[in-house]
Amino acid sequence: MKKIQQFLILLLFAASLSAQQAPLFDATLAQARAEVDAEIAAGIAVPVPKDMAGGYTHERHKQNFFILQKAGALYQLTKEEKYADYVRDMFMAYAELFPTLGLHPTNQSYATGKIFWQCLNDANWLVYSSQAYEAVYDRLKTEERNKLETDLFRPFARWLSIENPQFFNRIHNHSTWGNAAVGMIALVMKDEELLQWALYGLPNDNIAADSVDNDGGYIKIGGKRQAGFLAQLDHAFSPDGYFTEGPYYLRYAIYPYLLFAQSLQKHRPDLGIFAYRDSVLQKAVFGLLQQSDPRGVFFPINDAQKGMSWMARELILAVDMMYVDGGYDPRLLSIAEMQGTVTLDEAGKRVATDIALKKAVPFQHRSIEFRDGADGKSGGIGILRAKATEEEHCLLMKYAAHGMGHGHFDRLSFSYYDESGEILQDYASARWVNIDQKGGGRYLPENHSWAKQSIAHNTLVLDQTSQFKGKVKAAEAQQAERYYFQGKGDAVQIVSAKEAHAYPGVLLHRTLVMLKDESFANPLIIDLFRVETEEAHQYDLPFWFQGHLLSSNFSYHTATTQLNTLGTDHGYQHIWKEAEAKAEGNQAQISWFGQGKFFSLSTYTQSDDSLIFARLGANDPQFNLRHDPVFILRRNTTGSSLFVSILETHGDYNPVEEIPRQPFGSIQEIKPIYHDKAYSIIQFSTFAGESWTLMFSNSDKNENSSHEVRVGKVQFRWKGIYQLSKTKTID
Amino acid sequence: MKKIQQFLILLLFAASLSAQQAPLFDATLAQARAEVDAEIAAGIAVPVPKDMAGGYTHERHKQNFFILQKAGALYQLTKEEKYADYVRDMFMAYAELFPTLGLHPTNQSYATGKIFWQCLNDANWLVYSSQAYEAVYDRLKTEERNKLETDLFRPFARWLSIENPQFFNRIHNHSTWGNAAVGMIALVMKDEELLQWALYGLPNDNIAADSVDNDGGYIKIGGKRQAGFLAQLDHAFSPDGYFTEGPYYLRYAIYPYLLFAQSLQKHRPDLGIFAYRDSVLQKAVFGLLQQSDPRGVFFPINDAQKGMSWMARELILAVDMMYVDGGYDPRLLSIAEMQGTVTLDEAGKRVATDIALKKAVPFQHRSIEFRDGADGKSGGIGILRAKATEEEHCLLMKYAAHGMGHGHFDRLSFSYYDESGEILQDYASARWVNIDQKGGGRYLPENHSWAKQSIAHNTLVLDQTSQFKGKVKAAEAQQAERYYFQGKGDAVQIVSAKEAHAYPGVLLHRTLVMLKDESFANPLIIDLFRVETEEAHQYDLPFWFQGHLLSSNFSYHTATTQLNTLGTDHGYQHIWKEAEAKAEGNQAQISWFGQGKFFSLSTYTQSDDSLIFARLGANDPQFNLRHDPVFILRRNTTGSSLFVSILETHGDYNPVEEIPRQPFGSIQEIKPIYHDKAYSIIQFSTFAGESWTLMFSNSDKNENSSHEVRVGKVQFRWKGIYQLSKTKTID
User: Fold this and answer.
1) Which of A178, A477, B201, B534 is the most buried (most CB within 10 A)?
2) Which CATH number applies to B44-214: 2.60.120.400, 1.50.10.100, 3.30.2130.10, 1.10.510.10?
3) Cβ-based contacts of A655 with chain B (< 8 Å)
């Protein structure tokens, strides 16, 4: 009896499967219905603007534009009049309010808004509202449209453009929102003047050359006179689709790009917006997906908040729209599946349908380099990835342009990740976005004094001073040099870049190698940080390891009853010095435990090098900072120097089984053999008796060049940029 | 075509479902086969003992007994001779080795072993090996049995008993392993003398009354002369099945209890071991399952390592065995499902079969109190639980006996949990079990200097001195008093206990209320900590909150460039003092963010109270401690005092949406109205205009007593132990 029942249930299931075409879309629709119906029942609230972000009027108006957009979409999909009526009534309330508004009473922004404290949020409102207006346009009476356009939409669009050129006429993500808002409402209203402004900028803006915004970024970029949406597309992205502020801000910025592009595609297909600049929008979306760790969490470079990921609402739009407008790439479906929701439109319906038809193909992270700068000549970022037995490891090296107002002084820094998250971290920003208790959710003072400084990153710091002395203008004026990138997924992958301007008279050259070899359970990271100079400097090479220190092969002196700071400026004032050691011999090794795994870092030391354990948290009067640990190799020397380090991931442990697996690292010795302007040669050996030699050409990138270096009685020869060889000593 | 294919696949699936009876068991069997086959292929290794835990010989012999047990089980289940042969050959190798062994060369234990560094591990070996020997017994030739029993098993059993009475003849988890090992091999060998020792102890042990073990625990417990397995059952558990060392150690200790009981049930059913002492073993197992947070992670009280849970291998045995031997309780099946594996025997097969038959019923955590002490008179622990809209909240208050060598000085402390883990933490032990890099995996010096001290726990500390001055003997001699427990799952649940001996001349009385009410999104914790004394003392009430401090309603002075310790002894030397404030008004409130959620703590302050933010990590020369934050209310006063605090969980935030939900707490004011030996009365109000009054009888537990207290012009009247009433002010 029971078996017959089970059989019938399975028959039913089989039948329902063929009927149910797009369950993900149905779920999204049902959720939107529930949400909008509840708002309709609660009634319309359009309060007089008063509060900062987090306060009532701010959050209410924000909620209003989200609901307007959804109600419009619901009307389009269901043709139920209550949704169109709701949109109309809400707009009418805004049409009464808007003409009465002066500047928002907070008046704290370089471009204060009317409904919100800044024009940026006002532009958000108009972008969403334009979609809602378009959705119900055909249902409105002519006099209703006239009222709305005369009292609300046109003055709103002029407010965001001609009346706030410092906001609108600029190459910046704020302006993109402005351009999109004005352009999208222009397309619905068929207002050609506004559309021209949105696409090509204002004819004349009268902005002073040295104006700055609230984040300290310059309004005008030297030599750039263009503005408007197409100029944003020209200037905001590199030819590879990289966004100079990094993925956290691209995730935010991509939204108006995509929405405006969608409107343009519909109303002005002649512009061919998706093909514009060699399909730069598509490149940007795929690039954004790649600029993430194995979990799909974006690399938190520059002023990012950690944890933003593929799950963000902007990415739901990006994935669904690019699926339909970008040629039905089935890898996007696997990300849509992970997101668990789709957009409330035809694109979302198509994505949901194709997922139900099992068309999804896994999205693969890969090693990839992105050039920065509109012309691709402002450095870049390099991402190396390798799969271990079970885990994906991933390294990001940064040698991009400064990233404008949101940039950090962290050229040649790197961060390292696996499936659990961070192994070597980038601190990201000192900001709790939208959390009122932490400075109203805005950037905290420690963002400048700590998060942007060089010592907050895994890069070499000279003389306890940040790169470019921490000056944005100096950093923006100079670019790092992409030297070499080899990310074909082979056993040996390399990223190498140079920075000649961060410190006067000093060339910094870092080469990171990701080695996958049967001798190691997981990929090995080899770090060559070379300094070319004739002067004397103090060098600090920090490793912001994520985890709990387990052991070291050197003895150290710990501060047990009193802690002092590591310095007084450039971020050093925020670091408590916990322990210090003088280097013993030439090998310093530490191991730590984090996220259930063991890690070891080995680094070559010279006599007089010192080793420092420290922790973030000093000079933090409001407890704004995390108390994270760092290990620093410190060297005082004159002339050129080479820092060689190897990072291993090995073994694991969990508190249920309590059995450590491979708790010890395998590196026995690291030896720098040779280094100068032309070549770096190093060797390292393992406890298993294997010996490795890495030869690298520092200046000649020709793959066909032959190189020869004699060190004592040994002749090193290789062809091309590098060679990595392994020898096994037989006992 | 595609639909027909899908239909056929479903038909196939339906057919296979009826054939596959116990997939979980099949998977366990297949895994054991793969593991043992690999070991058989690798060959037998029985090295001469040399290493500590973590070293090669230790880990090899440990692996050997695990594989012996599995090979024996595989032989029983499959009757494949290769498994029996492997067990025989391995035992023969041990029979050659064992007679050549003296004391293990490490000689660092109060009971040094032969194969391992301590007898405890030797006993582990014999428990597992007894099962393997029994499994292959019938297949061995008589001369093989004679050889094994003469050269290996009998001398091994005598080594663990008559030759090490300080290990064997004691009420302690070590001895349980000894008793089980000797008893289990005795049952297979039919050696009545050894069985009698195992069940009833050695006739005479000659152990000095003041001998201590490596953890500082006393070998002899005052007045107790009994030993052996039945005495362990009498003394190790309270009548409720509570184990005085706590769940982490019970998890470990339960294993030999269950295995020996299983053998006794088979060979000596006349003893009725599972019914012994009102089914105390069953109570212990169900109690252990309850002594966990909402995720099934054991409360880390006393010397526990955090993270041990229902997933532990000992619990897999406990759940499967208790399912079969304890009457097929279907709630156990849901835990077995979560464990994802079963035991390799008939019990495991039955569990897997019944899971496949969908008999599992969810296991429900509930509010429950456990008495401690063999007679149930040594205090206990109280667990309160309530379900919020989405989450289960759970509070553990500890007023148990000292917990012998593994006890902490933490009477009246509490810890608090939700589905994500810890909200207020218990530090647990300073130990990295089996991690060689941290003191060989043994207890670290900071376990004594920090983890056991009172300030490491959420309990009141007087005069910067631990309870009982940190003396084990004094703590063991005195018991806390269970005062009141009401855990029926109602809106108001209460645990209340008194401690009269921790500090001379001072009565400590803590009452914790878990309130579930529609006014609050989640359960509210009300904490009344009352001190009865005539003397002057300094009081520190610490809250070890897990998360990042967001805000406070008072200004504080932060140490920005230099940190010093909070004290010099009793654990205070391990705490860095980060900030201090003088109480402003009578309300101190802080909020923090942890695990994606917001928390607020409100506490009533008197003038001259001070408020301290501090962090663990001082005097930690080897980086053994975690750097966790604490908030301390400090009061200097003469005579009795009442500390009133309220802890709220409210709202959440995630970095993908970046929208805080309910980031602020709702408590506006707390007022202690009255307190003396007989009564405590407090009031508190919310920003929503609600006012609450809690009246509590401190001495009279009669549910029928009427109480009356006049304070000024207000008369408070109630019946029974407590009353909690709510009034709403209408604007």
Assistant:
1) A178
2) 1.50.10.100
3) 305-308, 433
